[in-house]
Design brief:
Number of strands: 16
Radius of gyration: 33 Å
Oligomer: single chain
Strand order of the largest sheet: 1-2-16-13
Structural class: alpha+beta
Largest sheet: 4 strands, antiparallel
Strand content: 25-35%
Distance between the termini: 69 Å
Number of helices: 8
Low-confidence stretches: 2-8, 10-16
Length: 340
């Protein structure tokens, strides 16, 4: 009986609630939006390959073996970022992947020593090697072998006042002490350009009397997506090109003051008028448009289709080759997408 009363009470309560919500909805006023209040998604212009090929410009600003700075004009941000990410993560190199520690009496723990060795860039053409599969053994096609065998010992003749480097041999272990051990036909294949660490003067460890390191190093082919040690760049980044315009002319003393005001020497004075002479040096520090400096006629903005890339190579490749490889990988990805 109590249960039936509870059910009746519950239904009456819900009926009252439903009636209340119906009355509340009737009292609500209709909301009418004006045309300018309705959100409309931005129109996306259809990509035109012919127009892209016609408008795209690439200007080399700085070209060194280990550094490349170039400007890409009339390019969309997703494409620019794709090139940057490929440079960092998808260009293959050879790097030390396995470290077999036979003897290590230095103060550096085995795992720290292995990590330091893994980050030493190796000069070897990765196109001559294949990626190692899990079921494969190491062989001449998928690996490179190095040995590091070094011991610190007392010199025979030295003075007590001599620096420590003259009292002992091998007090500092360098990357040049890592010796390549050719396998199979590797000696013949790389006779004109032997496999080696990119730099000879990378410090691996410090040793003192009777301390020694004996390790076997195995290199594999990989990409930066797997581990940073396989990335061919120390940095690869871009920035939007700055754009500076004058609403009105800046002359005479104010022009000279503006030239001295900019820490990057972006401005110059020509025929008594301020001009933008070095726009690529602009870092958008905003010093020229600070209200306290009184140059309200200057407008500072960014060009959203112009990117300045900076590539710094670790050393396995020339910086320009990294850019070319990244573009080639992007092209292959696009062709694969079209096929699918």
């Amino acid at each position: 009986m109590k249960f039936i009363k509870y059910i009746v009470s519950f239904l009456q309560t819900n009926e009252k609630q439903i009636t209340f919500y119906q009355q509340l909805n009737m009292k609500q006023q209709k909301i009418i939006l004006q045309e300018d209040q309705i959100y409309k998604p931005p129109k996306v212009e259809q990509f035109s390959l012919k127009q892209f090929q016609k408008e795209l410009q690439i200007n080399i600003l700085e070209n060194q073996d280990d550094k490349l700075v170039f400007e890409m004009i009339h390019i969309q941000a997703p494409i620019a970022n794709a090139i940057r990410r490929i440079m960092i993560a998808e260009i293959p190199t050879m790097a030390i992947h396995k470290v077999q520690v036979i003897q290590n009496t230095s103060i550096i723990p085995d795992e720290i020593l292995a990590h330091r060795l893994g980050l030493i860039p190796i000069f070897a053409d990765p196109t001559k090697f294949t990626y190692k599969e899990e079921y494969e053994d190491y062989n001449e096609k998928n690996s490179i072998i190095f040995n590091l065998n070094i011991k610190c010992e007392k010199q025979r003749n030295f003075n007590a006042n001599d620096p420590i480097e003259k009292q002992y041999t091998n007090t500092t272990v360098y990357s040049k002490n890592i010796i390549w051990q050719p396998q199979g036909v590797q000696q013949e294949t790389f006779k004109n350009n032997p496999i080696r660490p990119v730099y000879d003067n990378i410090i691996v460890a410090k040793l003192r009397e009777n301390q020694e390191i004996t390790v076997k190093l195995i290199c594999e082919k990989g990409i930066g997506k797997q581990h940073a040690k396989w990335s061919p760049v120390s940095t690869a980044f871009y920035k939007l090109q700055s754009n500076i315009t004058f609403k009105s002319e800046i002359k005479d003393d104010r022009a000279l003051k503006l030239k001295q005001l900019c820490p990057k020497n972006v401005f110059d004075v020509k025929k008594g008028k301020a001009i933008v002479s070095n726009i690529n040096a602009c870092t958008s520090c905003r010093e020229c448009i600070r209200e306290a400096n009184g140059y309200s006629e200057i407008e500072l903005s960014k060009l959203d289709d112009t990117f300045i890339f900076t590539i710094e190579s670790v050393g396995q490749y020339l910086a320009k080759d990294i850019m070319l490889q990244a573009i080639d990988i992007l092209r292959k990805k696009a062709l694969l997408y079209i096929k699918e």
